[in-house]
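Complex record, two chains
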Amino acid sequence: MSGYIVVAAVLGAGVLLVTAAMLARSLLAPRAPVPAKLTTYESGVDPVGEGWAQTKVRYFVFAFLYVIFAVDAVYLYPWATIIRDADLGLASLVEMGIFIAVVVLGLAHAARRGLLRWV
Amino acid sequence: MSGLTWLEVVLRAVAVLAAFLVLPLLVGQTEHKVMAHMQGRLGPMYAGGFHGWAQLLADGIKFVQKEDVVPARADRSAFRLAPGVALVPYLVALAVIPLAPGVVGAKVDASALLVLAVIGVGIIGTLMAGWASANKYSLLGAMRAAAQLVSYELPMVLVVASVALAAGTLSLVGIAQAWTPWWLLWQLPGALVFFVAGLAELQRVPFDMPVADSEIVFGPYTEYTGLRFAFFLLAEYAGIVVMALLFAVLFLGGWAGPWAATVGWLWTLLKGLVLAVVVIWFRVSWPRLREDQLQRLAWVWLVPIALLQLAVTAVGVVMMR
């Protein structure tokens, strides 16, 4: 467990680094806010409409696909550590073959229904 | 606490922090110089005297003195927090990557899993930056970044599972110790997938759609100035260091080489440096992919290749047992 204490200490060091850097910046950097400077940047012209615009629903589809596949991928990690066990080596190989085949089938289905095409 | 004094914990954290502040600058300076020479220029020559070695330090001092502008429309707290969220995960990742069996910041059993988990957190910083800026370019960039990172995270997770399977452990030290030159052939498809996916995770050329400066003006980072902007740049170079060292440990045996017992850590660093130069080389020689080509590459090529690699590894492990 002691390794994780070091990880926590490194995380603390990172937070400290960011805080110290921001402190140094607030001491050194000038501050002169004027309304024109604080407007949203839009290549030099005045910003048009809302900043939070609509985007393509495609992005959502890929996020959705990822969640499904990532949850599947998690199951591979415990398998990686036990496949050398002589008692269940071949059986686990066959089972994981079926598992991967199901994942590939899902991907092929998504591809066939046109989910992987952008437009 | 088993055998770790508080002093040792603090010293280890400080050592990791020092590596985190030095290695990205080394890669950055290498990029300045290698890129310049590939393009028939000299690169920085003045700062520090000798071939501009202090250029990035001078840049840092310049960034600290620049005004920090938070746009009036921005979501202030998320906007301010984003650079830290993007930067710190790479620091934590660096802490568990071993340079040699004894030379590692934090000895953790499932370090391969931990590295993948914390690298995934970094993307939230980019997404926060893009959303909180309330800028159209930034939002587009953040959406592209999120879609790209989730798509390329998957093949990366799969090929790391493949090497973990080949070694029979989730520990990075264990994986590098189980490595043999035979892996260069056996794990070759996985290594290529890991490299491409790593390049995409870093949003480096040819996968720099999210920050495409010529179309969406640096995407999520458009509204950032001064030190907060510099933090995003530092995160990018720290990311190169983490990915290059991770590749060296997972696929190139890390410290494997002559006199590994004494200078093993140097081998890991050298292999990482060579990979970092390849990453820089790509930036100089490749055009940017389009968004649809980028998603297609991930789902139609990388994911199936990664699954195939997994099957090949599993069969190999059971056959040779």
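Note: Chain B has one domain: 6-319.
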